[in-house]
Amino acid sequence: MAVSVDTVYKTVLLILNKEQRGYMTPDEFNKIGTQVQLEIYLKYFEDLNQLLRVPQTDLDYADRVDLLDEKIALFKRTNSINYSTNGFIVPSDLQQLGSVIYNNSEIQRVQRNEFYNLYRSKLTKPSNTYPIYLYEDSLVKVFPETIISGVSANYLKFPSSVTWGFTVNSNLGNYVYNSSTSTNFELHQSEQVELIVRILEYAGIIIRDPQIIQIASQKVQQDNMNEKQ
Q1: Cβ atoms 163, 181 nearer than 8 A
Q2: Residue 75: helix, strand or coil by DSSP?
Q3: Which pTM was predicted?
Q4: Which of 29, 116, 172, 187 has CB 3.0 to 4.6 Å from 191, enough for a Cys bridge?
């Protein structure tokens, strides 16, 4: 389940108001929330590389690699890709291409230098049974070139932009949450506290309050240290 954008925004406002530290507008929150979500998401891959270097516990629910993969899995997608003049167009939200599938089988990905050698040989020249592909200029170029349909891709998507949608109360002039025009955070629910703390760190920059920046930064650093212990 996604992290509620309404819960995060109202918590941030509550903390700022309680500490009498200022205010964050919906537009500021949406931009900062989108940036923070992307930062947390991209950090998953750095953390995964570090975790794979050390042994993990065999206990259920305690393997950090499995827990991290669960968070990354929220962004895994499988979709058909459409053919254009020069190849198959990858999804606009693609962050990292995984496997490419044709006729329920994975197509071999090759590099340009390998491609020429494979194509020249009668034994390795691509066919409908054993196709290959190049991934260049955001296009999946499948060979033989007679393949122009029936291709799908497994990939990781970028997180969608965060939106705290609202209407304006005509009498009071305040913002009223509108779920129909809102977009929740796509991160795992366990990231809710991290989101709030990091957004508060940016809030300290906006309202020029070094104390908020310091407190939020210390909390982020402590959480990162705890995750690596």
Answers
A1: yes
A2: coil
A3: 0.80
A4: 187
